[in-house]
Structure prediction request, 242 residues.
Amino acid sequence: MKIIRAKDYYDMSRKAANIISAQVIMKPNCVLGLATGGTPVGTYKQLIEWYNKDDIDFSEVTTVNLDEYRGLPRENPQSYWSFMHDNFFNHVNINPEHIHLPDGTNLDAAAECKHYDEVIQSVGGIDLQLLGIGHDGHIGFNEPGAAFELGTHCVNLTQETIEANKRFFDGDESLVPKQAYTMGIKTIMQARKVLMVVNGKGKAEIVKKAFFGPVTPEVPASILQMHPDFILVGDAEALSLI
Prediction:
């Protein structure tokens, strides 16, 4: 495990983008595992900035996203498909055919999860997986208690996660999807490199618990202690307790 300390959110985003751009430059046809949420947005902005300066080329890159809400069509503004296009894909030269997310409209969970595992396998696995971390230690939608050996699966979102996400649905909890398709921890651990971004004082406790406490399914991110190439990039506040 490598820990990189950043001064603030901007510095964290720049340092993380540096690692991703190095991956793309070293292997132009690499497979990037991408994440949604507020934390990686700055990283995507930095990558877009470098793309606009002709410092990075995404034309051969393939992407696979961590998760998608079950039941939301792609065109829904709160779908992760929309999030990724608004915050990244629409601003760089990635081939649309190389973009992969679980299909939230396929309500046959077993079939969709099997299909997504096959997609990841067909592109040769993930070279670099970008992650954030939830306050309870979840990664993707792998909530506390999630089995470490799972591939892509359908999860029932915890009340805490629904609560955290309702701000994206005009504060109306009834509009928040109650299930999601997510890459499993097994899939994440099979990525050749894992990069986590974390910021803010609110994440300091879980960072300490996940990376300096026992490895346990009750703190899903703790398994990353066992990954052979895991990089944690955090700002001063998020790393204040370690």
User: Anything to note?
Assistant: The two ends are 14 Å apart (CA to CA). The chain has a mean pLDDT of 94.
